[in-house]
Design brief:
This protein is 31% helix and 17% strand. The chain folds into 2 domains: 125 residues, Response regulator (Rossmann fold, 3-Layer(aba) Sandwich); 45 residues, no CATH class. α1 packs parallel to α2, α2 runs parallel beside α3 and α3 runs antiparallel to α5. The strands form 2 sheets. Strands 2-1-3-4-5 form a 5-stranded parallel sheet, with helices on one face. The protein has a two-stranded antiparallel sheet with strand order 6-7. The protein binds iron/sulfur cluster (SF4). The site of iron/sulfur cluster has 12 residues, from α6 and α7.
Length: 199
């Protein structure tokens, strides 16, 4: 049986180290007293209030950014609720996406890691949690990725990534996106240094 927190004392923890919300089907073996896994945002919110875990992790799978709204709302609710707002929230993202980072930053998430398609089992999660450091803060991730990345929806599942420093007319992908725009090297980009912006 899982240990229960004390909803009347938001500072008290249940001893639960981690509550993971992962609807991707890529979590397994999470049934110990130290960790709990749920697959829906509502379950996650309920368990976060009841169990007051030390850390709440929310996994965003590979999905159109519009579909991530319910998980962003979950983080917002966790950070507004008096019983859960002191608990750090770790967002586990599939890959770098500046717009999503901005949304979860506004929602109040504390930390970010990119996990791709990795199956999350207790050893892998412990490795991630034990390795968390200041570079995993939201602000640090946002500083790495170029602020001129713009994401235009093509349909319900696809986005076109374009450069806002080139009037949204340059489509980005491949090496340029991953090795320049999504890294600190973006600060040396000619368009970043001399942006052409809509007046
Ligand atoms: S091309 Fe340059 S300015 Fe445009 S998004 Fe990439 S790094 Fe930023």
């Amino acid at each position: 049986m899982k240990k229960q927190g004390n909803p009347n004392d938001p500072g008290a923890t249940s001893g639960l180290r981690l509550l993971l919300c992962d609807a991707t089907g890529k979590a397994c073996g999470m049934s110990s007293l130290d960790e709990a896994w749920v697959s829906s945002p509502i379950q996650c919110f309920d368990n976060a209030v009841d169990m007051n875990p030390e850390l709440i992790a929310v996994r965003f799978g590979q999905m159109p950014v519009g579909d991530s709204g319910i998980l962003v709302e979950l983080i917002t609710a966790l950070k507004r609720n008096s019983h859960t707002r002191r608990r750090p929230v770790l967002a586990l993202l599939h890959s770098k996406h500046r717009k999503l980072l901005e949304e979860i930053h506004l929602a109040g998430a504390d930390l970010v890691r990119y996990v791709g398609e990795t199956m999350l089992d207790p050893p892998r999660l412990n490795q991630i949690i034990d390795g968390l450091n200041p570079d995993d803060r939201l602000a640090a991730h946002l500083a790495v990725i170029c602020r001129f990345l713009h994401y235009n929806s093509m349909d319900s599942r696809h986005e076109l990534i374009v450069c806002g420093a080139y009037l949204d007319r340059m489509v980005l992908g491949g090496d340029r996106l991953h090795q320049l725009c999504e890294t600190e090297d973006h600060r040396q980009c000619e368009y970043f240094l001399n942006p052409r912006l809509n007046s």
